[in-house]
């Protein structure tokens, strides 16, 4: 497991923590925004008209209405990324990460417009009468590059498991355990059955469920989030200011937060923006390809609304909830995950700027020699650290107690540590105070309001709805990738694997699941962005012809 974790960390460093991916994603959005004359502004109002079904004809081929296609796509994007993903972005990059999420969303509105229009144009009608579309079809049929289409489909299948599937149930199983004391395995089993009952009905059943579920869950979460922000009204202006202050300057250590570089804010903000709205990733165009919209560009207009609703509204709401409540840089009692825990040489203090800088450098791979190797004495659960510091969730752990896993009794004896990690990790449970991340952080923020402890239930229910809707939507994306690669006969077995992975993720280490999701996103996005650029003249022609016709 340690080897696998190291590989993920290596890939995260080169695929996520570097400037090349945000530059490529944002650069593509900037290019098409200028090239097409700001379609996210030009077509924004008309997109709402198309969404209403005003231009839909009964005899138009397709499986869903424009509204059902949008809600299906939104059900795939409005997920744990909106609750846990935004919290993770702030956790890693500070408040400035939200600014880069906004930038990604605004430019992503254009990127989504381009990829959905092309997807709808190049969709194919299968022998069973259903429509199938997505980047793999405009790559293969528009560019005549079957090999690249295959690469994308393979990446999409991996992304369905690592982005749309595993993180969703991982987050909800943790939250339901912490909130309602429901065992992870029970959550996994019950939701696995429900997922299977929905996805076995294909896109029509998925779209029917999504069209009813998405509006309800969005209303539930938005009302709750606004109540939290209003409860902390005195922090609204400072929170907004903090988003902009550190956009181009490193944020210093504040409380338990060790600080973040400009690069961290940029890369994590862009990555979370992509994760939340999927613009450029190539997944949502698959849902839109099923729509009965007659003109491909009109379906592209509908898709413009997605990043606006998903990132600019819902993700911003989550960000302001976390910032205004002040919980993002506070430590809370929690159970330490082994993959997020490390011992380092030295007596570090998060209130010391020099110490914070050293630890920040360590987390970005520039100071690995400080990892501790040796023995640590434990007396009645208390660590005798001397000149050693325990880090958890990128913060200095406090009030740590060590328990034995077998009977949950306090441990006394020696902990053997190598390279910062405890040997035989499974034998011990460590609890103490540290920063929170993901949905746990958002849940704590909701509790810092008029809701009190009831706030965590709002997040738990919201997360359950968000996660479930995301999982069923992403099952369809993998469904279409399977058809493209292997044919319709393999769809059943793909669904079996999908549900099995869903259940497995309910009981494994949540950090590893998030790391998998973080790495796979950029891998799948690159082939799609390359295809969009190569097809730029075609989308320009479609856009120009529509303007003239209008």
What does this structure look like?
By secondary structure, the protein is α+β, with helices and mostly antiparallel strands. It folds into two domains: 2-233 and 262-330 and 445-549, Amino acid/polyamine transporter I (Up-down Bundle), CATH 1.20.1740.10; 332-434, no CATH class. The protein is built from 22 helices and twelve strands. The protein has helices at 2-15, 20-35, 39-42, 44-51, 66-77, 80-93, 96-121, 135-142, 146-162, 166-180, 184-199, 202-231, 236-245, 262-277, 284-288, 296-325, 353-363, 438-447, 455-486, 491-505, 510-534, 536-549; strands spanning 124-125, 131-132, 332-335, 341-345, 374-379, 382-384, 388-392, 395-396, 398-404, 413-418, 421-422, 428-434. The strands form four sheets. The chain has a four-stranded antiparallel sheet, with no helix packed on it. The chain has a three-stranded antiparallel sheet with strand order 3-12-9, with no helix packed on it. A hairpin with a 5-residue loop joins β1 (124-125) and β2 (131-132). α6 (80-93) crosses α16. The longest helix is centred in the C-terminal third of the chain and has 32 residues, at 455-486. The radius of gyration is 23 Å and the shape is globular. The N and C termini lie far apart (58 Å).
């Amino acid at each position: 497991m340690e080897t696998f974790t190291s590989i993920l960390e290596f890939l995260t460093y080169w695929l996520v923590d570097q400037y090349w991916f945000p530059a490529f994603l944002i650069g593509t959005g900037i290019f098409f925004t200028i090239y097409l004359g700001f379609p996210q502004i030009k077509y924004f109002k008309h997109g709402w008209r198309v969404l209403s079904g005003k231009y839909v004809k009964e005899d138009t081929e397709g499986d869903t209405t424009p509204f059902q296609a949008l809600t299906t796509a939104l059900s795939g994007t409005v997920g744990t990324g909106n609750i846990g993903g935004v919290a993770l972005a702030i956790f890693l990059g500070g408040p400035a990460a939200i600014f880069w999420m906004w930038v990604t969303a605004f430019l992503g509105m254009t990127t989504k417009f381009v990829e959905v229009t092309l997807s709808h144009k190049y969709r194919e009608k299968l022998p069973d009468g259903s429509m199938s579309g997505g980047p793999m079809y405009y790559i293969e049929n528009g560019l005549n590059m079957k090999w690249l289409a295959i690469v994308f489909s393979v990446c999409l299948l991996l992304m369905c498991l690592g982005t749309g599937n595993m993180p969703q149930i991982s987050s909800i199983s943790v939250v339901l355990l912490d909130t309602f004391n429901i065992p992870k395995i029970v959550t996994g089993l019950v939701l696995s059955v429900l997922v299977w009952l929905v996805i076995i009905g294909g896109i029509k059943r998925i779209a029917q469920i999504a069209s009813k579920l998405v509006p309800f869950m969005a209303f539930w979460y938005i009302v709750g989030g606004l109540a939290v922000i209003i409860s902390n009204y005195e922090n609204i202006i400072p929170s907004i200011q903090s988003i902009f202050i550190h956009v181009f300057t490193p944020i210093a250590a504040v409380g338990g937060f060790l600080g973040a570089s400009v690069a961290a804010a940029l890369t994590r903000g862009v990555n979370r923006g992509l994760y939340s709205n999927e613009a450029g990733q190539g997944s949502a165009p698959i849902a839109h390809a099923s729509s009965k919209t007659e003109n491909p560009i009109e379906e592209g207009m509908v898709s413009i609304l997605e990043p606006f609703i998903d990132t600019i509204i819902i993700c911003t709401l989550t960000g302001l909830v976390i910032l205004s409540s002040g919980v993002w840089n506070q430590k809370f009692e929690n159970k330490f995950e082994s993959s997020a825990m490390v011992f380092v040489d030295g007596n570090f203090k998060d209130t010391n700027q020099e110490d914070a800088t050293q630890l920040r450098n360590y987390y970005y791979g520039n100071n690995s020699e400080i990892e501790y190797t040796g023995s640590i004495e434990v007396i009645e659960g208390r660590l005798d650290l001397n000149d050693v510091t325990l880090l958890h969730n990128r913060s200095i752990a406090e009030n740590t107690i060590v328990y034995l896993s077998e009977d949950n009794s306090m441990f006394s004896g020696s902990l053997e540590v190598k390279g910062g990690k405890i040997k035989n990790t499974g034998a011990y449970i460590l609890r103490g105070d540290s920063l929170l991340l993901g949905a746990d952080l958002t849940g704590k923020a909701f509790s810092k309001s008029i809701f009190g402890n009831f706030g965590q239930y709002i997040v738990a229910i919201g997360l359950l709805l968000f996660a479930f809707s995301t999982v069923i939507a992403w099952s369809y994306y993998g469904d279409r990738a399977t058809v493209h690669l292997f044919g319709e006969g393999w769809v059943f077995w793909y669904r079996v694997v999908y549900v099995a992975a869903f259940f497995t993720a309910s009981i494994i280490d949540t950090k590893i699941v998030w790391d998998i999701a973080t790495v796979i996103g950029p891998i799948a996005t690159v082939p799609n962005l390359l295809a969009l650029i190569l097809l730029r003249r075609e989308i320009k022609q479609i856009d120009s012809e529509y303007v003239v016709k209008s």
